[in-house]
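Example record for the data management plan.
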Amino acid sequence: QHPALYGCDSLDDERVRVQLNQAFLDVNGEVVEEASRDGSCYGMGTTAVLGLLCRDRLHFANLGDSRAYLC
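Corresponding structural encoding:
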């Protein structure tokens, strides 16, 4: 779990949104940094889907072309 999301039950919905966004930016930054160090990773990107249950709400976030489906 990303440190920004610890204790999400105490966060309001907007703060959860901000923290999810920051977590994805952090991960993407790490991927871009690794790609810049290793020429074989040139053009590498990030794609991810995340579901986070806080209190009685399920929050979704996606990065890239991945999607979440509820069935």
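Summary line stored alongside the record: The first strand starts at residue 48 and ends at 54.
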